Amino acid sequence: MREKLSRRERQIIDCIYERGRATAEDVRADLGEDLSNSTVRTLLSILEEKGLVRHEAEGKRYVYVPTIPAAEAGIEALRKVVKTFFADSATNAMAAFIEAADARLTDGEFDRLAALIEAAKAEKR
Fold first, then answer.
1. How far apart, in Å, are the Cα atoms of 39 and each of 4, 33, 63?
2. Are residues 14 and 53 in the same domain?
3. Domain presence at residue 2
4. Residue 30's domain is classified under what CATH number?
5. Quick check: is 109 in a domain?
6. Which of 12, 71, 117, 120 is at a distance of 20 to 30 A from 33, taking alpha carbons?
7. How do residues 78-115 score in pLDDT, each as one tens digit?
8. Across-strand partners of 63?
9. Model confidence over 10-27: pLDDT tens digits?
10. Which domain holds residue 38?
């Protein structure tokens, strides 16, 4: 998702990803701010024009769904976070995650990370 988004557009797309699908009313409820129906619908239309969401008609209302799978969007978002906050270093990002107080990894998760690191080493990534 290389499209530039405004803060409000980002909030709306995040809401839709969290829910998996959302109506304009869902978005308004989740944002918890005094946004008009018109504003939310306009922003949803903009996101649709940008190709980031599509709508499905359910009765008289539209339900919006992301056009980019969550995993793909997550990878792109993570790339931006790593670049912005960790000097474009996966090592710095992983170290910060592992050292975070609320990040408790299971033995299985440590094993998976170790396997991913070994595979990346073998491929010289």
1. 19, 12, 16
2. yes
3. no
4. 1.10.10.10
5. yes
6. 71
7. 998 999 999 999 899 988 888 886 767 889 988 998 99
8. 56
9. 999 999 999 999 999 999
10. 7-66
